[in-house]
Amino acid sequence: MSKIVGISEIVLWTADLPAALRFYRDLLGLAQISPSTMPNVFLKVADGHAGIPQMIVLVPKPEAIKAQPAGNQLHHLAFELPEDEFDSQHAALTASGLQPRGGKHPVLASRTMYVDDPDGNEVEFICRAPAE
Predict the structure, then answer these.
(1) 130 vs 132: CA distance, rounded Å
(2) How many C-beta atoms lie closer than 10 Å to residue 42's C-beta?
């Protein structure tokens, strides 16, 4: 039986750190918890269940990684939203110039939408479907 209680971090390569920060920190509102002197940027998504925050970590791509073909490293990542925040997140994404794509989760009764971050990673937003 698993004793895992959550996902601590998702680490993403970024070719354009300022653009990634504008998306994750400024648009999505994730709090930067690492010192600005670090090359990698740790952004807090939520409090964890065991005292470790849930994080997105942005790592600048070194030239050797930039030289490799892009894509196919990550299918997508998903953020959970409260039901009452789903529409306002959609509006914020749209106001920023993004065009959220709708979707239907194959297992959960939920509302979902998808956008691509500045590095082309698909980002899903998901909330429980409203009670009927």
Answers:
(1) 6
(2) 18
65 vs 81: CA distance, rounded Å: 33
Q: Which domain holds residue 129?
A: 75-132
Q: How many CA atoms lie within 13 A of 121 on its CB side?
A: 22
What is the DSSP secondary structure assignment for residue 97, as one 8-state letter? T
pTM of the model: 0.86
Q: Is residue 68 part of a domain?
A: no
Best CA proximity match to 57, nearest among 77, 75, 72, 71: 77
pLDDT means over runs of 10, the chain (132 residues):
79 94 97 95 91 92 83 81 91 97 83 92 88 56
Q: How many domains does the chain have?
A: 2
The amino acid occupying position 113 is M
What residue type is 83 in one-letter code? Answer: E
